[in-house]
Amino acid sequence: MIKLLFGLFSGIFKGLYLVLLPLVILKFLSKPRESFHRRFLRFSYHVYAGILNWINPYFKACFGVDLLEGFPRILSAVALSLGSGYALLSLLHWRPRWWIFLALLLHGWLIGGQWERINAPRDFQMGVRLDE
Question: Rounded CA gap, 41 and 108, in Å?
Answer without folding.
Answer: 10
